[in-house]
Amino acid sequence: MSCDAAGVVAALRSAAEVVEAHRDELVTLDREIGDGDHGENLKRGFTAVLSKLDNAGDTPGAVLKVVASTLISTVGGAAGPLYGTAFLRAAAKLGTEPELTASSVVDALAAALEGVVARGKAEVGDKTMVDALTPAVAAARDAAGSSVAEVLRAAADAAGKGAEDTVPLVARKGRASYLGERSAGHMDPGARSTALLLRAFADAAS
Amino acid sequence: MKKIINDPSTVVTESLRGLAAAHGDILKVRTEPAVVYRADAPASGKVAIVSGGGSGHEPMHGGFVGLGMLDAACPGAVFTSPTPDQVQAAIEHVNGGAGVLLVVKNYTGDVLNFETAAEFAAAEGLDVRTVVIDDDVAVKDSLYTAGRRGVGGTALLEKIVGGAAEGGYSLDECEALARRVIGSVRSMGVALTACTVPHIGEPSFVLEDDEIEIGIGIHGEPGRRRVPHQPAEQLVQTLLEPILDDLPFSSGDRVLLFTNSMGGTPLVELYLAHGIAERLLADRGITVERRLVGPYVTSLEMQGMSLTVLKVDDEMLRWWDAPVRTAALRWGA
Fold first, then answer.
1. What pTM, to 2 d.p., does this model score?
2. CATH number of the B185-319 domain
């Protein structure tokens, strides 16, 4: 893929397809330990994103800013402000640079994580999207000397593993925390969707 | 799934249209983004009370919009918190110049979305305060959970603080009263059946015929423990005891008792349960000063109930008794 605004738009289109394809899976995961709306909410959000991509902007940062405001105003739940904040911080970090580089993608991912932590106040081990995003940022940083595609692939691999690792955890944030010990044995839907999105971006970039 | 709907994706919008048609003298509805607001908004010089949350809890919150209660309600998708742009639109629409109090139920999504909207409003120089209600004793409040949920107590809070705002309380006074109500109210619920979110199409959890779920929230999420079904006498005790032990309530206290249906439990059963709760409170020397019985904070078609006990004082009673004219509650006006 190209690393300019058009490339980012293409990656977002495939992310929207992935969200649509995994809508039922996310609903099922969320029904186990939450209230079952994550897949539907994210699908609604990314459908809205699709409708805005045509005139989203001339730089990767501008495109991601549109994604952020669209998700904030359409997703609802905790995922809306959290994903919205993640994309907003990433957009701010990218600023007006015309093309992504390996190191700017690393910085954007790190900024996204900081934003999610600041808004949601979750820590690693709380069984949230932070458990996917934190190892993703670390792996991306290790791959910073390579290409955009390699950085995203490393992040997606680590996020997938991080999401898997949420299965035995007892939730300490979000609606799943009300279940206490009963939340163990299920993958966190937010961690799963984070891993899915990063995988979609990595696939689009390779 | 059998529901009186056309399309799962338009349930909330179509329902709001019906609400507006039914109660046009009290409230108005705007869409994109969706807000239910008082027909006479903005009420100049009065503190505006704004709440909201996922749909599926009707009459909360849209049915609480009107004189003496809410100035606006922001309905999210079913069981999904509203988005910040809805809350911002509500604030702009009803701000009468005396400030805005946001009443938020303690769920991660609700808190995050209202917080985001409050930040935007503050950046525009508006005086916006937020109170978060967390009355559900079924959830342990600790560093290791998202904290207690906001459930039945929300209806009482919105009535009392809404009455006070109508009566001329300042924003500071409304906020202080709201915090006092939040500190004095406790709730606990039980589900006999799960409920089905329209766009999901399947029940949110499965209960066998002889099972009930103690400590459910209002979003179809499972509770803390599953036990065999029990007679009403025992069930009401199961709900009431953790409430009374928590605050704690003690002999000589004056309370408002709210017996709430989760949507599918009929009034014949609800009154039966309410009668037991009144007797159990009297046995403990607790005086029930006011009551509310009915489906006010619901979870779609879920069968089940919740009990809410608010320790009242004269100030709270005054604003509880004050005139109210909404779709769901109407007295004195």
1. 0.87
2. 3.30.1180.20
